[in-house]
Amino acid sequence: MILVSFSPAFSLDFSEFSKSDESSWVALEKARLNYQNKDFGEALDGVLRAKDLKREEIQGALNILNEALSYEAVRRIGDDIVRIREKLEERKSYKALMVLDEVFVSKNPGDFGNSMKNLLTWLQGLVSFPEALFLEGNIYSAEGEFKLAQEYYSLAWENNIYFDIPDEKYSLLYKIADLADFTGDTEKKEQALLLVVSGDPVFALPGNETGILLSMKKNLSRKENLESFFLLYRHDKWFALKAYHDLAEYYYGVEGGTMERAFTCSMLASSIIVTKLSYALSDREVDWHYKDLKNLLKTISRHPEILVWMDENKCWETLLLFGDILNLRGNDTLAFNLFEIVSETSVDEDVRVGALRRLLNWN
């Protein structure tokens, strides 16, 4: 289960422009804690209060800005944010400047095309409060109200540009995918996972490959072992690892023209795993540096917390799946090489047996 965590100290906070003593973020944090404690009634009440507070805060901020912008001396400036700000400073419009300062905690004039109208539109959009919609979806999902959960997840996705932490949209997409999987909607699950990996500039479906993706594929096609591939390529889009694994698993099990998709996804997932493990070992062992895959997978056995991460993220399963896909598409030497390495290095008996079984059944 993916839980949403909010940190008011690091969020855009317009509560000082509201008459309430409580911040919408604080109210949402209380709702989240009730959700974690399975007090879903209180959690839902808290979410509704947080949404009301957010509307009050944003309306208060908009009222202050609109009043400051209504004066003739300011209107003559036009729509230019920088020039308007200078005029507001000149007029000592401190409350309006406070609103702009809060906006520019995470934004800059260029994000709005230096247009005050665009800034005001964005500020109004914050009322949508996708974090609250996301949590509302989680609450309904936990209560078995899957249709309502999907509705709130969809609303949150429609307003994902207003997430205070942009990467929270990936947590939302994973929730949408998990719910679709639970309800048997494989098409919706695939769509959600593809939206996750669309955040990776390297990824593209077969026929539209990026230059780096084509290079990665060609490397595997002309080599007889995996070392050149893992030495040359590093991929650090951690947020996409689960999506790549799940998509590879899905495409591998579907008949008819999806093997290249499975190959692309499993290749990128495996690259992310090796990159993550390399960084983790470099942080923990000053003298360690990447030599080869076998050494990497053998060395992680000295670090229980890394092995836990491997299990939690199905990394061994991903590597075995990568081998299965390599074998099926004719890269049998690479597949054999990968199964051999996993069988000799994994501390997980089931994984080791799985790799050995593949080697014993080799033909």
Overview of this protein structure:
This protein has helices at 24-36, 40-69, 72-75, 81-90, 94-103, 116-125, 130-142, 146-158, 168-182, 186-197, 211-222, 227-232, 241-253, 259-284, 293-299, 304-312, 315-328, 332-345, 349-360. It is mostly helical and 363 residues long. Helix 9 (168-182) runs antiparallel to helix 10 and helix 14 crosses helix 17.
Provide the descriptors you would attach to this structure in a database record.
mainly alpha; 363 residues; disordered N terminus; 19 helices
Low-confidence stretches: 1-10
- Strand element count: 0
Principal-axis shape equals: elongated
Helix tally equals 19
Percentage beta strand: under 5%
Characterize the main sheet: none
Mean pLDDT: 92
**How much helix is in the residues?**
55-70%
**Rg computed from alpha carbons, rounded to a whole number of angstroms:** 25 Å
Q: What structural class do the secondary elements suggest?
A: mainly alpha
Terminal CA distance reads 41 Å
Order of helices and strands: HHHHHHHHHHHHHHHHHHH
Give the topology.
Blueprint lengths: L23 H13 L3 H30 L2 H4 L5 H10 L3 H10 L12 H10 L4 H13 L3 H13 L9 H15 L3 H12 L13 H12 L4 H6 L8 H13 L5 H26 L8 H7 L4 H9 L2 H14 L3 H14 L3 H12 L3
Helix pairs in contact: 1-2, 1-7, 2-5, 2-7, 7-8, 7-9, 8-9, 9-10, 10-13, 13-14, 13-17, 14-15, 14-17, 15-18, 17-18, 18-19
